[in-house]
Design a protein that fits this description.
flat; mainly alpha; 2 strands
Length: 164
Amino acid sequence: MNRLEHLEHLDKGLVDELAQVARETVRDELREQSRKRRRTAALYAGSGAAALYAGAAVALAVGLALALALPGWAAALITGALLAVAAVVLRNAARPSATRPTPERMAEAERAGETPGTSYGVPSVPVVPPTGGTGAPPVPPMPPSVPPSPGTSATGPEAPHHRA
């Protein structure tokens, strides 16, 4: 069925012109939005570059301060180690962890009636890397599955939606 069959009584040229105006309006609107986003992205990039140079200046100052009491190589080594520790701390703070409760997880657990710190009613288990040295990634633990009792149907909204 043609999309425009219900508009047969209208002039074909009028419909085409209306569609063209709508396309141009949307295109202009998208261009304006992308200009604003480009400007914002450029400002963020400039701010990031300035922060990078500021961090380098602070690292240099720490290294030079340590070099007053230590040899230069030791001061540089200590400064590098401090920066590495700061990078790991910041990365861990940015990445959500299964063991660290977030406000969203706490609210979700309270709604579900679970105790905080557990996932799906099962306490969280630390992932241990394989010791075989096979190079395969570790397999995360899976919560135990409970088979449906004989008198119930497994087609409810919480039943698995895959075929075995």
